[in-house]
Design brief:
By secondary structure, this protein is of the alpha+beta class. It is 24% helix and 32% strand. The chain has nine helices and 19 strands. The chain has helices at residues 45-53, 99-103, 107-111, 113-122, 138-150, 168-185, 196-202, 220-225, 230-235, and strands spanning 5-12, 22-29, 34-39, 60-65, 68-72, 75-76, 84-87, 156-160, 189-193, 205-210, 213-218, 240-243, 254-256, 261-266, 271-275, 285-294, 299-304, 309-314, 325-330. A six-stranded mixed sheet has the order 7-8-9-3-10-11, sandwiched between helices. A hairpin with a 2-residue loop joins strand 5 (68-72) and strand 6 (75-76). The longest helix is centred in the middle third of the chain and has 18 residues, at 168-185. The chain starts with a strand and ends with a strand. The relative contact order is 0.12. The mean pLDDT is 91.
């Protein structure tokens, strides 16, 4: 299947002596796919999005959107001529226009009023049509910005931190609404997020950026369970780096530059805990509980073994206290 978006070894540097903000990044995006770009501050994720949108020009590489080359040697297609729409982090709504005026601002939106009204109904903001941006909530403003972008029927929707301004209690609900909107409208989307939970919940695939490079591209399950390095593993939450020789049956491992060893990333919830001196296999680690913390859905144990400190989660119903001896073994289901 031919990709809708093809990014080939693009690079962008700001300043002659600077490290590239984007360094030879390549990936494809299929029609109807939702991709997330994640990474720490300064990793190059927003610059990558701006390159695809045409707001920055790469020094090297090429970008194709459908059959059209938008960037390449001697080629640059300006943003307004690209078949894509960008939703900015601050939504960029016109404050002196009503919701209805905002979404019908584009010429192509005015040409298809019925489709735009369906989008308003789908996003449940039809009743807000006569209000101004300052009279609606952050979640509602986001939906207005999305409808305005989708009203032009772009081949590709680009979003910069689409959920960053939302309160935590609204985030899950809006995240679900956004994903439903993508599916209902069969939208191909590429979004930047510093929150890996957004990527895990919404994306078909994830691009992990570090120091301008795409160091791993895969499904949320792949980057979470099979990280290629320490950075990626920690980006997606707490984990334990256990030397491979202690867990020789592990299905996945990587070379850790910090310890210069082959290690296995084992999440706290992937440990099974049994009483010390119980029957065990070659892949068990024993130690003493040095800390017990109640986390609501589970207890977080800190366990000191001879060679390392391990975090492990157990059920809140389990009776365990500091000083208890336990044996751990990993579950790779």
């Amino acid at each position: 299947m031919k990709a809708l978006l093809a990014v080939g070894e693009i690079s962008k540097t700001f300043g002659a002596n600077e490290q590239p903000a984007v360094d030879e990044v390549s990936f494809d995006c299929q029609k109807g796919e939702v991709l997330a770009i994640v990474g720490g501050s300064g990793s190059g994720k927003t610059t990558l999005l701006r390159l695809i949108a045409g707001l920055e020009i790469p020094e090297l590489g090429e970008i194709k959107l459908g059959e059209v080359k938008t960037n390449g040697p001697g080629t640059f297609l300006p943003p307004e001529k690209r078949d894509c729409a960008l939703v900015f982090q601050d939504y960029a709504l016109f404050p002196n226009m009503t919701v209805e005026q905002n979404v019908f601002f584009g010429k192509t939106a005015k040409q298809r009023p019925e489709q735009v009204r369906k989008l308003l109904q789908l996003t449940k903001i039809s009743d807000l049509a006569k209000r101004f941006p300052h009279q609606i909530s952050g979640g509602e403003q986001q939906r207005v910005a999305l409808v305005r972008a989708l009203a032009t029927q772009p081949s590709l929707l680009l979003l910069d931190e689409p959920l960053s301004h939302l309160d935590p209690e609204l985030r899950d609900n809006v995240r679900a609404q956004l994903l439903n909107l993508f599916k209902e409208t069969r939208t191909t989307a590429l979004f930047v997020s510093h929150d890996t939970e957004d990527a895990m919940a919404m994306a078909d695939r994830v691009i992990v950026m570090r120091q301008g490079q795409a160091i791993q591209v895969g499904t949320p399950a792949e980057v979470y369970s099979k990280p290629l390095d320490r950075y990626t593993a920690l980006l997606f939450g707490k984990t334990n780096f256990v030397p491979l020789d202690l867990i020789p049956n592990a299905p996945h491992h990587f070379h850790d530059e910090r310890s210069n060893k082959e290690v296995v990333s084992i999440r706290p919830h992937d440990w099974q805990v049994i009483e010390k001196d119980s029957d065990s296999s070659n892949s068990t680690i024993s130690g003493k509980v040095s800390s017990v913390r109640y986390k609501g859905t589970h207890l977080e144990l800190k366990i000191e073994s001879e060679s390392m400190c391990i975090l492990a989660n157990v059920e809140t119903s389990r009776t365990v206290k500091e000083g208890d001896g336990v044996t751990l073994f990993p579950s790779f289901d």
